[in-house]
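Please go through this protein, sequence plus structure tokens, and consider how the sequence yields the tokens. Keep your notes short.
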Amino acid sequence: MRIVIISDAWKPQINGVVRTYELMIPDLERMGHDVHVIGPADFPKRFPMPGYREIELVMFPRTGLAQKIDALKPDSIHIATEGPLGWAARGLCRSRGWAYTTAYHTQFPDYTALRAAKFLPFLYNPVRNFCIYLVRKFHAYSHAVMTTTQSIEDQLRGWAIETPFHRVTRGIDKNIFYPRTHDNAPVANIPNMKTPVALYVGRVAIEKNIRAFLDMHWDGSKIVVGDGPDRPALMRDYPNVHFAGKQVGHDLAAHYRAGDVFVFPSKTDTFGMVLIEAMACGLPIAAYPVPGPMDIVTDDTLGALDDNLEIATHKAMGHGTAEGRYAHVLHHYTWDQAANQFADMQHAAAIKR
């Protein structure tokens, strides 16, 4: 089956959307599928997305997108994002009477509202409500919306989205993410780290609520791994925190292993792949009881959820083992399982010409 994925978020960006498809595609190809991704880099006219400069938005993509899709002759189309490419792909499929699938990867209404409220706080609710309307409209005619968890599906139903959902899990690379108890497991060498070490990994931006983690009282050390627009200000405001910058692959895993507990302060993620990567590296999770963490931290051996992040962090360290968390991830989160679920969704939405 030739599958075309259209995404406003694609390489060289590093985010959850990109990593999901980048890590799932090899398994789809091993299953015999021919997968092509159309992203912003395939178009000449682009501009940086306000507030998220790493993502380039395509200007007037409809004609060029139609040409690229026609050249590929897809058996199915998956629209990954609600940006200009996504809307153009949706319009093209509808005009031709083609079935297509969509995905809800990002809490777009919350992200947009937070950025607007940063300058004009009274805009938060109207901006969020308008964006919910756009999300509802975007997914209205999709054959199925790719989702991650029950709590996200409940949220979307609460927004009056009636399109069928198709759940696709996430996975980890077990050759990279494993506990420091394993032989020769590399651990990042960060000097002067007082234990216990509390770790955050992810984009350093307003929607990740990182200040809640940095303001939390903690007798040990704190590490922030990642980059983003808020990093310079946070480095200035929190000089005692170690900011490790962007890390990938084995270097990222080595930084996970340098921590004793993984703290996830975000309230706006649909899943949080960093959660299962951290657990695979043996760390317990501390987070708020919100979508994403509440679907992943399902018992106290995996971590703790609390409206008080400091309480959650202390509770998380009191239960379970590194090997137990690693085994849990290997059993529940694999890319081959995700690829099978995704392929089933695309088979059901095959284009009928």
